Amino acid sequence: MQHFDLNQLQWNNTVREQLLGQGLARLPHAVLLVGPAGVGKTAFSEQLAALLLCESMSPELSACDQCQACRWLDAGNHPDFRRVAPDGDEEPEEGVVEKTKKRSAANIKIDQIRELEAFVFVGSHRDGNRVVLITEADAMNPAAANALLKILEEPPSSVYFILVSSKTKSLLPTIRSRCRVIPFGPPDAAAAAAWLAGAGLEKQAARYLNLAGGAPMRVAQWKEQGQLAPIDALVESLVSPPADPIALAARWDGLLKGDGVFRMENLVEGVQRWLFDLAQERLAGEVRYHGGWPRPKGVQNLNPNALLAAWREINQCRRSARHPLNQLLFLENLAAHFLRALRPVA
Ligand SMILES: [Zn+2]
């Protein structure tokens, strides 16, 4: 398990204080960490698990990183720790397109929760706490969620449940009501920039942060996945697009031919956000997603109604964005919608 330095996640100190301010003994036995992706919920949940299992905790409530328990946890084989995540390779991400078969297969299944019963109701190996960490708790299918509810009804007192979710709407309300809900939000811009600088993203940090809804760890994930270059190239194609939709579509097609990290739904979302920002800029004089990026010339001559109409038309296309029958044709259609919206007010 990767350990994060608490100082790197300073913006979550209020949450820490809320949960641990009265000591570990007052920690609720089931907590649900909620908030947008990329603001540090998972890192925090891992710290909390380490804290509950560490056998030589510091008075400031940090795991020691040295004891047998910490080393086991690091190596992923602590006998009193269980991590439950969706069964499948594909990481759920901010949804652009409706669920596909593959996506819906990546959920937490009832068997995974049933396996917990033995863990929870049989005694601890180390005579201490036991911790169940459920990341992406919203990925539990209804049967799994109901099975978990039963366990949460009367867990032994040394068992702690930490649930993490970025999509709380998909969680059963009964699960929420059994947990202490701890909301996480994005850090302020300075803290986010400082964290990104630590992750090797100094200069461009601000512009990606806006695209990521202020969530620094999402930006770091994009960097790791090699998404930043295609994002740059897409924005470049939108700032000064060729006049011909076929030429624009060909450029986009090139972006999608990378190693699969930048997908059609990312592209469609990027175009939509760009249109949204152009309309915002015309109507309100500000942008939401592309602050810090070069602005195109002549925005003041654009027709906001045409921009919003194109945004809506492209919204209609989103359903088929994941698996268009003919990718190039799909892109040409998208490019035509986009370029039409850029015609200046007559
Ligand atoms: Zn320790």
TrEMBL record:
Give the protein name, as stated in the record. DNA polymerase III subunit delta
Task: Share an example GO biological-process annotation for this protein.
Answer: DNA-templated DNA replication
What GO CC annotations are associated with the protein? DNA polymerase III complex
**Entries under PANTHER family matching the protein:** DNA POLYMERASE III SUBUNIT DELTA, REPLICATION FACTOR C / DNA POLYMERASE III GAMMA-TAU SUBUNIT
Identify the residues that the record assigns to the AAA+ ATPase domain, covering every copy.
27-188
User: Listed GO molecular functions?
Assistant: 3'-5' exonuclease activity; DNA-directed DNA polymerase activity
NCBIfam families assigned to the protein according to its UniProt record, in alphabetical order: holB (TIGR00678)
Q: Record the organism.
A: Sulfuritalea hydrogenivorans sk43H
